[in-house]
Amino acid sequence: MRVRSAVVRITAAVLAVGCITACADGAPATAPDPTAPTARDSARATAPGGAAGGAGTSAASVRANASCTDGKCTDNSRASGSGNRLGTGGGRHPCSPSVSLDRYSDALDKTTFQGTFIGNLSALARDTDGSIAAVSDRSVLIGLNGRTHRPVRAVKIIDEKGAVLDAEGLAVEPGGTYLVSSETEPSVRRYDRSGTLLGRLPVPDALRVAPAGRAQSNQTFEGLALRPGGGTLTAAMEGRLTDDGKDTAGRPLLRFQTWQRYGARPGPAAYRLGKQYAYPVDAGLGVSEIAALSDGRLLVLERGFTAGVGNTVRLYLADPRRAADAGGVPKLPGGKAVRPAPKKLLADLGACPSLGAPAHQPQTNPLLDNIEGMTITGRAPGGRLRLLLVSDDNESPKQITRLYELTVRPGGH
Question: Is the pTM above the cut of 0.85?
């Protein structure tokens, strides 16, 4: 009887391996500070397999169309009418020594919520209530459930004249208000949780789109990140200013602008223009998103597209603490005194395993698409960070709204 029970238990475990693999590591942490260890992380550190979801699992052992909620897995292939609607990869699948892919999901692709199209997503940010805030470049603030990533709210936002925004960056203040950057002017505006405009931050004249400044159209504030604690805000230019040059390695020098917030008084007046520094972007790429670490460093997502080849997406770690202030420098590189922020490649995401992901246009790796959004959702054992990325489908049948869950070891301090 005891032997028979053991056989039954082993058989059940074998049959359930797909669900176990797909459901492990399923939800971002919901602690207020994504860089702080959580009890859940501590439990994972002592569990067999740790954050990897168990040893010996592989993409081949996972059902491609399984979705998981609260530890239960369901086959979605018939319900969605689309094969591989939700792609998963149980455990960590290395992209590099510093980055691993946990899973991807296409469940949001071409969906709606209360009549609002859930797509065109250009930025993500971890919200104060544990959800994931997203912004569409069609001027919509969207909330995603922190565990399932399903839409839970959507609100339209407008500028001072009632016009829609080309919203590209998003950050959430400690009090729960939103900072949204637009690459049209460019601008950074503040909104409450109902989408009401509260004000806007000052922007240096040189960063404005020509002829008001030296920026190129659609090449301005693409990335936005608020350092944990809310004291430093950083906006990343996607492209370089007219007349700015390259570094000695031939990499174009972009400008990152910071603001400092002093005191607890709410309102845009609390933010003052801070340091501006140069960032060397890889040739042919632009900066699509940034995320701030608690120690002042930044995760930087660089992205490019080549017709007939597909997307290039690279994740870097940059250290603006070691950069010189370039705010008063009319033309970069500006000489030896103007030190750009050093950066270290964490991973070329084209090297990640595809996990059977489909692509609707030529891609060197079908996993890739137009990745524009990124946020830190929590902390994993061993000093690793959990990241959530999203691609912007531009409402195109050739592109996909895809979520990517990564585990990253930034290293250093």
Answer: no
